[in-house]
Amino acid sequence: MKSDQIRAGAAHERVMMNLAVFNLLLPAAALSSGYVNIFLTIALIGSAVMIFLIARNARNSTGVALIDEHWKLAWKRCRFLLISYSAATVIMLVGWLIASMQTDYNMFSIILVVFTRIAAVPIVLMVLALFVMSTTSLSRARQGEFPA
């Protein structure tokens, strides 16, 4: 029974690792270095791979209801993260369209910077919310409780 609880908690640990490494650590490193494009590309690819692995584990049944339900909940949380990525992409596209209408290059740059900061907001807010939710779910999994 204890191993089932550990395996159920692994789903939420993987979500939290994705959030910590690919959504907080690497973007912070990107902003503090001169390699913004490289770090952000690695972060996006790494997050996508982690989400894919979580989705694959959520689809594969282990035969233990506790483990299966926690993996499904982890996949649901990853979908929230994907929605925040989509919102950020839409905001950036709108910003790029507005910026491309500018004749002055300085104004083009300013608008892109502004929309980049605005586009980061949905992702940051979702990452913080998911950390709280995943911590709670991890605690429930380790106690052998089903997701609420």
Summarize the structure.
The chain has 148 residues and is mainly α.
Report what the structure shows.
The chain has one domain (2-142). The chain has 148 residues and is an all-alpha fold. Helix 1 packs parallel to helix 3 (65-100), helix 1 packs antiparallel against helix 4 and helix 3 (65-100) packs antiparallel against helix 4 (105-142). The radius of gyration is 18 Å and the shape is elongated. The protein has helices at 2-31, 36-59, 65-100, 105-142. The mean pLDDT is 94. It starts with a helix and ends in a 6-residue tail after the last helix.
Strand and helix layout:
Layout: H1 2-31, H2 36-59, H3 65-100, H4 105-142
Helix content: over 70%
Q: N-to-C SSE series? A: HHHH
What best-fitting shape do the alpha-carbon axes yield?
Answer: elongated
The count of domains is: 1
**Cα distance spanning the termini:** 20 Å
Average pLDDT metric: 94
* Overall radius of gyration: 18 Å
What is the structural class?
Answer: mainly alpha
| Major sheet description | none
Report the total helices: 4
* SS elements, strand count: 0
What are the segments in which pLDDT stays under 50 over at least 5 consecutive residues? none
**Residue fraction in strands:** under 5%
